């Protein structure tokens, strides 16, 4: 009888060790699977985020253009002419800046 109790206890102990080993093995597999799924989810999230950002930028641009169109349509002829004149000035200023040479000349150097 004592031998049978000892054998049962031994079997219970071995079963416990086997269960722990099996659980560790399954946890390793599950962990690997979770890591892979997580990596996929992160990549999908990045793509989705980029799509949303692009849509938001496009929507913002569309709204700015609509607002600009509304403002221009509300202008009278004199205001539109003033806008054209100011835009021409800005265009000229941009051409002047892009054509300017900002490199210092030899006599512009300062001696210390």
Q: Quick gist of this model?
A:
With 112 residues, the chain is an all-alpha fold. It contains two helices and no strands.
Q: What does it look like?
A:
The protein contains two helices and no strands. The protein has 112 residues and is mostly helical. It has one domain (17-97). The radius of gyration is 38 Å and the shape is rod-shaped. The N and C termini lie far apart (105 Å). 0% of the residues are buried.
Low-confidence stretches: none
User: Roughly what is the average pLDDT, rounded to an integer?
Assistant: 88
Distance between the termini: 105 Å
> Total domains, how many?
1
| Helix run count | 2
Helix and strand succession?
HH
Number of strands: 0
Please write out the topology.
Elements: H1 2-74, H2 77-99
What descriptors fit this protein?
112 residues; 0% strand; rod-shaped
């Amino acid at each position: 009888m004592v031998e049978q109790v000892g054998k049962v206890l031994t079997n219970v102990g071995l079963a416990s060790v086997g269960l722990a080993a099996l659980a560790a093995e399954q946890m390793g597999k599950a962990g690997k699977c979770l890591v892979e799924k997580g990596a996929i989810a992160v990549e999908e999230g990045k793509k989705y985020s980029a799509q949303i950002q692009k849509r938001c930028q496009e929507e913002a641009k569309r709204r700015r253009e609509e607002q600009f169109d509304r403002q221009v349509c509300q202008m009278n002829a004199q205001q539109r002419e003033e806008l054209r004149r100011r835009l021409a000035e800005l265009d000229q200023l941009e051409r002047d800046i892009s054509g300017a040479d900002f490199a210092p000349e030899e006599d512009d150097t300062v001696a210390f």
